[in-house]
Amino acid sequence: MTAAQRLWSWFDAVVLDLGKQMRWSFLPPLMVYFAYGASGITSVVGTFFIKDYLDVSAAFVASLAFWAGLPWALKMPMGHLVDLLWRWKWVLVFLGAGLIAASFTIMFGLATRVPWMEQVMPVTAWFVLATLLSPSGYVIQDAVADALSVEAVPRVDARGNALDEDTLRAQHTTMQTLGRVALISALTAVAALNITLFSGIEDLPTTEQGAIYGRVYLMGLAIPVISISGVLLSMIQQRRHIARLMAHGMTRDAAEAQFAPEGGAVTPNWAYFIGGGAFVAVSLAVGLSQVQFSQEIIFAGSMAIVLYLMRQLIAALPPDKARALIGTAVIVFAFRATPLPGAGATWFTIDDLDFDQQFLAVLSLITSLLTLAGMIVLRPLMAHRTIVYIVVLLTLAAGVLALPNIGLYYGIHEWTAPRTGGIVDARFIALVDAAVESPLGQIAMIPMLAWIARNAPSNLKATFFAVMASFTNLALSASSLGTKYLNQVFTVTREVRAEDGTITIPADYSELGHLLITVAVITVVVPLLAVWIVQRSRFRSSD
């Protein structure tokens, strides 16, 4: 076989095969995921709206971000509600779409200075309302999308014959991969769209800038339309599939049962609703009291509640699968909980390496595009390798990919640039590093999501997704805490000047190198240690 034939064979098996495994039944949840990713269209305009239109402090904005994050704490009870209302879950998508549309409509009115709005409430009050409505809508739709992603993988073929386990595993992996692809594709598309929409806006008068802001929010109204269209498409697909099964001799009741969770109706478990309420109550009480160590208290309280709810879920699994789920969750948590260098590393690239806004924006766009490519290329690996294998591989890769950033701090580009005619300079190294590193974070979650979709009880799929998502998201909170602690140990400061040009805080990157090295060591050691401990215990994961 020639090199060209081998390349084509690889392209066919990796890239084209993803298209071959794509089913029309996958499209509805992908449309909901895409709608969520497209919400990034207002990220830039929202930042400038606060700056240009609102007289609020940075502390107020930070506080509002805290409140805006609270609706995601409700994903646990929302997931259980989806299981309870399985046949009527489309109603929740309409509710979420209404909340999102209301948020964009309010912001359009504020951006275009609709006169009557200020007579009803202050502009800041309207903005707070819009900010809280939007995430409430997205969390409702996200919980339904998780349920749709499970329902989208059929258990039988067109003739009603049961699919084998290997086929189901491959299709669940493909579905979850495509879900992440849809999300990141939307983020990439709106990032490119924002570059076009805001080209030259800084030279326009304020009134014309407001008109552009309003146009962006009007465009945002397409987002709830996309998610609603996905649900309507799902309903049409179900009816057509039921008709095909009946044409092959299956009774209507048996055909409709293919879209109903196995195990019958779900009995309400009030622990999920009580736990979700306690989750919000803890966050509210601590967040409003502004006590010392508030982040740690919220993290500990949230972890206790989520672990309690996970215990409720695990009771519904066979003992071997329950132990495997615990081990898998611990390994994924350890991988995602490793700390990051923090903002100091970015400050260094701006001040010392002359990375400007445009280059950082291009770097972000390239990262999104290559994340998509990485997930597609590595999909066969995720479909045929165990979660433990993937985490170990990604951990070692993350350790290697930390070296370029360390090298940039210690001036490796000053050695490579003269020897390559200026090609391998700091920006080239940063681009290559981002290109290789970008898919890692998303890839780690796909096998976990596929495992849940394949092994969780059929009538509790949405609940499992919601609680496990909360658990893995807590790993990101742990990562943030670790990042904060390391930045307290290794102090990094950027230069700050007063209005008269006097330097009030001098730049100090002397400890950044130690910070980068410490983060790299923790990134490798913690996940590998978690794998070693779990795989030597009764919670060993082999899936």
Write out key terms for the chains shown:
single chain; Growth Hormone, Chain: A; 543 residues; mainly alpha; two-stranded antiparallel sheet
What report would you give on this structure?
The protein is mainly alpha-helical. It has two domains: 15-267, Growth Hormone, Chain: A; 318-542, Growth Hormone, Chain: A (Up-down Bundle), CATH 1.20.1250. The chain is built from 25 helices and two strands. Strands 1-2 form a two-stranded antiparallel sheet. It is globular and about 80 Å long. The model has no long low-confidence stretch (mean pLDDT 76). It is a multi-pass membrane protein. Keywords: Membrane, Transmembrane, Transmembrane helix, Transport.
SSE diagram, text form:
Blueprint: H1 3-21, H2 27-38, H3 43-53, H4 58-69, H5 75-84, H6 90-111, H7 115-120, H8 123-151, H9 165-197, H10 206-220, H11 222-247, H12 252-257, H13 270-289, H14 294-314, H15 319-336, H16 343-351, H17 357-377, H18 379-384, H19 387-401, H20 403-409, H21 412-419, H22 426-437, H23 440-455, H24 461-489, E1 496-497, E2 503-505, H25 512-535
Antiparallel strand pairs: 1-2
Tell me the name of the CATH class of the largest domain. Mainly Alpha
- The helix tally amounts to 25
- Helices and strands: which structural class? mainly alpha
Cα gyration radius (Å): 25 Å
Helix content: over 70%
pLDDT < 50 runs, ≥5 residues: none
Q: Tell me what the CATH architecture of the largest domain is.
A: Up-down Bundle
Question: What can be said about the biggest beta sheet?
Answer: 2 strands, antiparallel
- SSE ordering: HHHHHHHHHHHHHHHHHHHHHHHHEEH
Shape: globular
Number of domains: 2
CATH topology of the largest domain: Growth Hormone, Chain: A
The strand count comes to 2
Spatial strand arrangement across the major sheet: 1-2
Mean pLDDT: 76
* Beta-strand percent range: under 5%
First-last Cα distance: 34 Å
